[in-house]
């Protein structure tokens, strides 16, 4: 009998493109590779996400990461519906991760953000009710630190544990401590910005150097005839971290999927782990005065 941790590493070591998913603690599975769908709404033409998600389904992606606040969730949904209707895919084969909420960062007259008086446990109970009602299959969290995860895990009357925590994760921000904590609690880490982000200075910390230009990633890539992007994705997948690279370029959507036909040696994995700079691309400093701002804690 394998522990969940062993199973994770077995699946992560050798996932094929067709069956690249790992188990979640609630009995569902999550594909190790998903398509991120956040593109700057000011510069992304309408219909882009629709076409990209349809193409990604043809390429083999079965996991999509979206949100109402990405302003294109309706396109992602339409693409999935169209590909189900044309027989390319079945609904039960698609893992869609959405993030609920209906207010787009309201501000007061002075331009300050109006915060909701967040009670994470009450919010979690509302999400549990959604799962019990069959509206969602799996419940996860995003940008939770250890304290916030423990708050939920120790909540009296907890009915559903969080199965995943979507956080920034890539070779320059490897999350060793949070990853270990999550492994102990069977929580899968879903890594956002797995390619080092869009480097859009309006919301990304661009003081951190460009990940994809890293010499080690480039040189390891040369050995396998892969790009630094593919090496960065493979690194996480191989250690059981789900990745959700965003691309709205047909070529790069295909390119990023080709990470299941090579594997990194243990030494290469260790060398990439050592690239960790512990600097976030996504700091969300505009919300650092929020009582639940997660990044004041070490992890
Ligand atoms: P990312 O996936 O690390 O990087 C995306 C950037 O890399 C885009 O500019 C993309 O441009 C480019 N790119 C894609 N493939 C490439 C390749 N093979 N070579 C070179 N450049 C490549 O960053 P992200 O979009 O910030 O993160 C991924 C997803 O995570 C988001 O889309 C979103 O779904 C999610 N996310 C969640 C949170 C959260 O707080 N929960 C925060 C941030 C992001 P092209 O489109 O032109 O290819």
Short overview:
The chain has 299 residues and is α/β, with parallel strands linked by helices. Helix content is 34%, strand content 9%. It contains 10 helices and 9 strands.
Describe the structure.
This protein has a domain at 4-30 and 118-296: Alpha-Beta Barrel (TIM Barrel), CATH 3.20.20.100. The model has no long low-confidence stretch (mean pLDDT 94). The protein is globular, with a radius of gyration of 19 Å. The strands form 3 sheets. Strands 6-7-8-9 form a 4-stranded parallel beta sheet, covered by helices on one side. A 3-stranded parallel beta sheet has the order 3-4-5, with no helix packed on it. Strands 1-2 form a two-stranded antiparallel sheet. The protein is built from 10 helices and 9 strands. α2 (48-59) packs across α3, α2 runs parallel beside α9 (250-257) and α7 crosses α8 (228-238). It is α/β, with parallel strands linked by helices. The protein has helices spanning 4-13, 48-59, 73-85, 120-132, 146-153, 176-184, 215-224, 228-238, 250-257, 266-273, and strands at 21-23, 29-31, 35-36, 63-65, 95-97, 141-142, 164-168, 188-192, 242-243. Bound molecules: NADP nicotinamide-adenine-dinucleotide phosphate. NADP nicotinamide-adenine-dinucleotide phosphate binds at residues 36-38, 65, 142-143, 166, 192-198, 212, 227, 229, 244-249, 252, 255-256, 282.
């Amino acid at each position: 009998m394998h522990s969940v941790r062993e199973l994770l590493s077995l699946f992560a070591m050798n996932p094929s493109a067709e069956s690249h998913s790992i188990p979640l603690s609630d009995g569902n599975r999550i594909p190790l590779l998903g398509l991120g769908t956040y593109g700057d709404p000011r510069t992304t033409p309408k219909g882009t996400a629709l076409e990209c998600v349809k193409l990604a389904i043809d390429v083999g992606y079965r996991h999509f990461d979206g949100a109402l606040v990405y302003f294109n969730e309706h396109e992602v949904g339409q693409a999935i519906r169209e590909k189900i209707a044309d027989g390319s895919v079945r609904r039960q084969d698609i893992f869609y991760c959405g993030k609920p909420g209906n207010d787009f960062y309201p501000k007061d007259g002075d331009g300050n953000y109006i915060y909701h008086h967040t009670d994470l446990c009450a919010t979690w109970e509302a999400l549990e009710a959604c799962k019990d009602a069959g509206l969602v299959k799996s419940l996860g969290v995003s940008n939770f630190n250890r304290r916030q995860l423990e708050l939920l895990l120790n909540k009296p009357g907890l009915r559903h544990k969080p199965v995943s925590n979507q956080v920034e994760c890539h070779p320059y921000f490897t999350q060793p401590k949070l990853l270990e904590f999550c492994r102990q609690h069977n929580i899968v880490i879903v890594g956002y910005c797995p390619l080092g982000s869009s480097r859009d200075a309006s919301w990304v910390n661009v003081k951190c150097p460009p990940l994809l230009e890293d010499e080690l990633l480039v040189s390891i890539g040369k050995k396998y005839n892969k790009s630094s992007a593919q090496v960065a994705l493979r690194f996480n997948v191989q250690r059981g971290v789900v990745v959700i690279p965003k691309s709205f370029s047909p070529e790069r959507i295909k390119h990023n999927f080709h990470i299941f036909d090579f594997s990194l040696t243990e030494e290469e994995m260790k060398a990439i782990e050592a690239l960790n700079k512990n600097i976030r691309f996504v700091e969300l400093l505009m919300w650092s005065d929020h009582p639940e701002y997660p990044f004041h804690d070490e992890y």
